[in-house]
Amino acid sequence: SSFLIQVVTIFPEYLAPLRQSLLGKAAERGLVDIAVHDLRAWTDDVHRTVDDAPYGGGPGMVMRPEPWARALEEVRPPGTRLVVPTPAGRPFTQAMAAEWAAEPGLVFACGRYEGIDQRVADWAAEAGPVSEVSIGDYVLAGGESAVLVMVEAVTRLLPGVVGNRESVEFDSHADGLLEGPSYTRPASWRGHDVPPVLLSGDHAAIARWRREQSLRRTAARRPDLLLRLPEGALTEAERQL
Ligand SMILES: Nc1nc2cc(Br)ccc2s1
Predict the structure, then answer these.
(1) Helical axes 144-155 vs 94-101, angle rounded to 10°
(2) What's the pLDDT at 28?
(3) Please, what is the angle between helix 144-155 and helix 21-28, to 10°?
(4) Ligand 1 centre and the CA of 2: distance in Å?
(5) Of 17, 29, 65, 151, which one has the greatest count of Cβ atoms within 10 A?
(6) Which residue out of 110, 134, 145, 150 has the highest number of ligand 1 atoms within 8 Å of its CB and is therefore the one to mutate?
(7) Global ipTM
(8) Residue 210: pLDDT over 70
(9) CB atoms within 10 A of CB 19
């Protein structure tokens, strides 16, 4: 059965890339179904109003709850996870992507302005899991770009979408560390040579070298990931690196 992705947004054309490339092929092969809905279809005034001034004052506008509730009541199958991208959300992680890929589908609510009336997420939690997540510590103009990112991260984990399962299993972050450097031909290129161990054919030495490169790169770029490693993930020698 195919994984059903639904997106509710006031900029449906922004989600057009979901029909391209990887996702396009997966959709053609019936592995994933994508439906994009325009929130304004559920407004009831002539101006198709989706926003209003914030209670308590403050800058900007807030998205009104009623159009969202009508949209979600119509498109969200009971029990389906609702994902709400927001700069105030929990960090989106590869673990979340893997967890969500094992579910029957997802509904994404794309906020604009200063966000969606909080009661929508509270109300939606009565009918299934709700995940308020951010894709990074920067503020976008809306949730649509975040949805493109999360849809790509989730769908590439669906069985059959990425040809080479190995490349999925050995993803960066799969063992909690960053991927080390990669090389291909030519062995010597503009005065830069491929590390000789990779041409040695000594697979044990290559594995050791790759592990060390991952550790060094993780320590340099993402020391926070090292702190999060489970007990025993690093040998004593590796901790010394
Ligand atoms: N990092 C993120 N920024 C934003 C901004 C808006 Br507006 C909606 C969702 C997100 S996720």
Answers:
(1) 70
(2) 72
(3) 60
(4) 28
(5) 151
(6) 134
(7) 0.95
(8) yes
(9) 12
- Atom 6, ligand 1: which residue's CA is nearest? 142
Determine the pLDDT at residue 20: 74
Residue with tokens 């119509």: 74
The pLDDT assigned to 231 comes to 84
| Mean pLDDT of the residues in the chain | 93
**Considering only CA atoms, which residue is closest to atom 10 of ligand 1?**
86
Instruction: Specify the pTM.
Output: 0.92
Tokens of 60: 């900007």
The pLDDT of residue 233 is above 60: yes
Q: Find the catalytic residue in 66, 73, 114, 193.
A: 114
The answer, yes or no, to whether residue 128 has pLDDT greater than 70, is: yes
What is the atom index within ligand 1 of the atom nearest the CA of 111? 8
% of residues, the chain, pLDDT over 90: 82
Task: Round to whole Å and give the CA distance between 76 and 239.
Answer: 47
Q: Please check the confidence at residue 26 and state whether its pLDDT lies above 80.
A: no
Ligand 1 pocket list (CB less than 6 A): 85-87, 111-112, 134-136, 138-143, 146
Instruction: Give the contacts of 26 (CB within 8 A, at least 6 positions apart).
Output: 32, 155, 158, 160, 161
Q: Going along the chain, which residue ranges are E strands?
A: 3-9, 32-38, 51-52, 62-63, 81-91, 105-109, 130-134, 188-189, 192-193
- Whether 156 is a known active-site residue: answer yes
Helix, coil or strand: residue 165: helix
Mean pLDDT of 79-94: 97
| 122 is an active site residue | no
